Amino acid sequence: MRFFLLLFFSYSLFAATLHLATSSNPSRLNPILATDSSSSEIAGFLFNGLVKYDKDASTIVGDLAEDFYFKDKTTLIFKLRPNITWHDGAPLTSKDVIFTYETLISPKIVSPYSANFRFVKSVRAIDELTLEVKYTKPYFKALETWMMGILPEHILGSDANIMNSAFNTKPIGTGPYKLYQLEHSKNIILIANENYFEGAPKIERIAFHVIADPMTRFLMLKSAALDIGSIEPMEYERQLSKDFFEKFNVYEEISRSYTYLGFNLRREKFKNPKVREALSLAIDREQLVKILFFDHAKVCTGPFLPSTKAFNEEVKAPKRDIKRAKELLKEAGYGAEHPFVFEIATSNANSIRPYAAEILQHQLKDAGVVVTLRVMEWQAFLNTIVFPNDFDTVLLGWGLSPMPDPYMFWHTQSDKKGGFNLVGYNNPRIDKMIEESQEIIDKTQLDGLFREMFKVIVDDNPYLFLFIPNSITAVDTQIQKIEPSPSGIWHNYIEWKKEEIQ
């Protein structure tokens, strides 16, 4: 702890530094390759897309693009803002957007984000700042696709191996911050981009401290060595004094994420739907929420979040029924002499999930199920368990955008290297529904189809949908200009100021 406090004071020698923590080393600070939470979070400060959501997370507005419109149902026009420069001073042009698109669809890279561009027929430059995007057919996420960070053609255009490029740890973007220093397992320092097109951020530096241990992150927050940090419900309820709430403002909202236990459906033991249903009936989701979160979460009932119209409120979480669970397991050939055995793999990067795994292990024991646990460091978990699909089950979570796209998680074609269909879900009916949904522009019709998908997926039990946590964020009172909104607190971070203690 003393080491981190020394770091805090040394970085405070620089004016206006925002101190944050990240639970793991970023793997690639390249927006088209950033699939882990640490990489995505940091890359978000360094890169821009053509468009973004507004602070209410309800309307798409321009980012690098100052204007955009549909010429017809399959033709989209973007007009880039003039005088935007990359961090190295080179100008942003239409060539960069075309290069990003061509890189994403190239067989030389593996990225789950490539799927978002599967209906793009062509991208061409009308002039240096104007682009025409043609789609093969109407696509309900045509605009949201272009929230992907844009890459610099003048740097990466001659790079033969973008997957392992030096750019991934020395990125050049257009964003409000530039990478200054990256020390693995120590610190990542960003500095303000003085030439940012919306104006230089008021806080000059952001220091990400890489701290794998959740308790250390919490102690650093309590000691004010961090300016902003997440608080777990038990910490909030039991471990914070009155002094803390005088030092920090606390913001709480339902998150746009859920946690699930995913079955590896490629393995024979999980192909029997009776087994999956039995495991679902053997757990008590309400107890999970009560023990882990007090009143700071809700039970998750399916793949789309309650804040969206894709949510099917008629689908309820199953009630625990140990008797029926045992009956189903017996029908599948399991019992006291031959128990069903499997492993739950998860990471300690999220402080709640190892405890959730222990509770699930205990609950499933009541149905005669034998569960072993494997808790790993985040990068090792991703590289040796998740991406190679070498698991029985994974305890993981997804963060979802306001406009969900089931293709990335539930379509058979997303069951591939680098894809987000991690569990190998394959349902021809769902594939067909997803394919139909892609070209439905009418929002009411689309929401109705999503609600139907919701029920079919839940009935198949590819996941055990567990809980939707609240997001509890503490912000030092020195940080000014915070404006909470439906999208959270970060929408206006370039306007934040940090009041320095004299």
Report on the architecture of this protein.
The protein is of the alpha+beta class and 502 residues long. The protein has 3 domains: 162 residues, D-Maltodextrin-Binding Protein, domain 2, CATH 3.40.190; 101 residues, Dipeptide-binding Protein, Domain 1 (Dipeptide-binding Protein, domain 1); 214 residues, Dipeptide-binding Protein, Domain 3 (Dipeptide-binding Protein, domain 3). It has 15 helices and 20 strands. The strands form 5 sheets. Strands 11, 12, 13, 14, 15, 16, 17 and 18 form an 8-stranded mixed beta sheet that branches. A hairpin with a 4-residue loop joins β8 and β9. α8 runs antiparallel to α10. The longest helix has 18 residues. It is globular. The N terminus is likely disordered.
Task: Name the descriptors.
8-stranded mixed sheet, Dipeptide-binding Protein, domain 3, Dipeptide-binding Protein, domain 1, alpha+beta, D-Maltodextrin-Binding Protein, domain 2, 3 domains, 4-stranded mixed sheet, 27% helix, 502 residues, single chain
Instruction: Report mean pLDDT, rounded to a whole number.
Output: 93
Total beta strand runs: 20
User: What's the gyration radius in Å?
Assistant: 23 Å
Tell the overall outline.
Answer: globular
CATH topology of the largest domain: Dipeptide-binding Protein, domain 3
**How is the biggest beta sheet arranged?**
8 strands, mixed
In terms of per-residue confidence, which ranges show pLDDT below 50 for 5 or more consecutive residues?
1-14
In CATH, what is the homologous superfamily of the largest domain? Dipeptide-binding Protein, Domain 3
- Roughly how many Å apart are the termini? 24 Å
